[in-house]
Amino acid sequence: MDEQREMKVKNRTMVRTMIITITVFIVLGFILMVTIGVVQNKPLQQKYKYGIVLDAGSSHTSVYIYEWPAEKENNTGMVQQKHACNVKGKGISSYSDKPTLAGASLKECMDEACEAIPVHRHSETPIYLGATAGMRLLKLGNKSASEEVLKSVGQFLQTYPFSYQGARIITGQEEGAFGWITVNYLSNNFGKASTTFGALDLGGASTQITFVTAKVESQDNTIDFRLYGNDYHLYTHSFLCYGKDQVLKMSLSKSINSKHGQTDIIALEDPCFHEGYNVTMTFQSVFNSPCVGRLNLTQNTFTHVGLGKWSECHTVVRKVFQKSECKYSTCSFNGVFQPPVHGNFGAFSAFYFVMDFLNLTAGSLDKAQSKLQEYCALPWNTIKKMYPHVKEKYLAEYCFSGTYILTLLEDGYNFTSDNWNYIRFIKKIGESDAGWTLGYMLNLTNMIPAEAPDKPLLPYGGYVTFMLLLSFLILSLCLLAYKCFCRPTGSGQRDVI
Ligand SMILES: Nc1nc2c(ncn2[C@@H]2O[C@H](COP(=O)(O)OP(=O)(O)OP(=O)(O)O)[C@@H](O)[C@H]2O)c(=O)[nH]1
Ligand SMILES: [Ca+2]
């Protein structure tokens, strides 16, 4: 009898201990769940912020609008392009004779920006204008005209309700470095151990090459960044006059100069234009740039006649690169230091427009050359019939531009058949255009912190899994507790504790 009673007391004590333990676990589990829930779900209102950057290029101006969730502005990859608008007409540097009209040329795109950004955000939205090689050249040729043009666009932008942050000519180094930041920011390469992409930008009046390197022998080509906790040591160079429009002028002027004095220049035969191409041009349109020397001729015009001979074109284009002098261990061209290229590169702007049109974005360097050779040999009439909707100016120049791009990459930057496939021709990454503007804005708004910002306690996937497991555990414990509380006795009655 005593033994039975002792057993019963022992049993009860055991059940009590179990219940207390289970209760403690339930309470602890509940506290943990609430704590993680609170930490993870800090205020999550999706408020967006905006920024505007005007890319005043040599050939045209584009207005880019960026947006990002307000509370995540320091996280990498958060800023996206919301809208882009191409200003009609030429670049702002073409307003050198009538600078006061430069500002008003931006009206249509600026009105679009007002529509695209919610009115209550207008006053806090920063707006920047950066001018590139066209304005650098105008400044070299006519400083006061370049100042007048900048004044005109600056005054015009200030008539809008945004937060005006200035209109200026950015340096070639900035253009290269911010293009590199854009490409790597959008590719989510920052803040990780992963390697970065180099950036290749080909404009109308300049071209930039930027990549991470260990050793830079010339201070002009060095930029250091500390971004999201990593140090980046960059090589960058911008070649003024080596955008595709200025190189065409240089190449034409070289041919004209080599003919000048021998005969009157009536027709200029050009291997880089299609056979049957025949257009009257003014000398002024070739010699109107600081990239080309002066020429004294009595005639005003000449006929530009296409021959469609790729090998000869290649020879002519190669002449714009001076490869003989180099005072460093290695050079690209014109005596400019460049370490050997390595790693992947993103090539954008005209690199993309041209290579995409010519269908040369994939495949080997040899294949690209042979395909281009075939394309250049097609008569102009055939080309026009094949592409009736393509702007005639672009269409006429693809043979020249393609040849220039292959030559620039191979002879200029020293890419070879072996690393050709490391170049990716890109227009956009996600929804955002590749170019310097995004990097420029991220830098000026301090949205690329030197150190990695704090992350949530758990990544989202881990958080959800953890919460599910915890809920499952608590539920199981509850069931167990219920079973213990309501354990049926041998007589079919429930055991009362
Ligand atoms: N084929 C083709 N060419 C284009 C297109 N858009 C621009 N271009 C040409 O490609 C070249 C480079 O264009 P952009 O990258 O806009 O050059 P940019 O910014 O005006 O010039 P920079 O000030 O030197 O950077 C110019 O010669 C343009 O005329 C396009 O959609 N198709
Ligand atoms: Ca550009």
Per DSSP, what share of the residues sits in E-state strands of 2 or more residues? 15-25%
The CATH class assignment of the largest domain is: Alpha Beta
Number of domains as seen in the coordinates: 3
Give a quick account of the main beta sheet: strands, pairing sense, barrel closure: 6 strands, mixed
CATH topology of the largest domain: Nucleotidyltransferase, domain 5
Oligomer: single chain
Task: List segments where confidence is low: pLDDT < 50 over at least 5 consecutive residues.
Answer: 490-497
> Which ligands occur here?
guanosine-5'-triphosphate, calcium ion
CATH H level of the largest domain: which superfamily?
A: ATPase, nucleotide binding domain
Q: Give the strand order, joined by hyphens, for the main sheet.
A: 8-9-7-6-13-14
Structure description:
- The protein is an alpha/beta fold and 497 residues long.
- The protein folds into 3 domains: 2-41 and 458-485; 48-240 and 427-444, ATPase, nucleotide binding domain (Nucleotidyltransferase, domain 5, 2-Layer Sandwich), CATH 3.30.420.40; 241-426, 2-Layer Sandwich (Nucleotidyltransferase, domain 5), CATH 3.30.420.150.
- 42% of the residues lie in helices and 19% in strands.
- It has a 6-stranded mixed beta sheet with strand order 8-9-7-6-13-14.
- Strand 8 (222-227) and strand 9 form a beta hairpin.
- The structure holds guanosine-5'-triphosphate and calcium ion.
Task: Name its key features.
single chain; 497 residues; alpha/beta; Nucleotidyltransferase, domain 5; 3 domains; 6-stranded mixed beta sheet; 15 helices; 16 strands; 42% helix; binds guanosine-5'-triphosphate; binds calcium ion
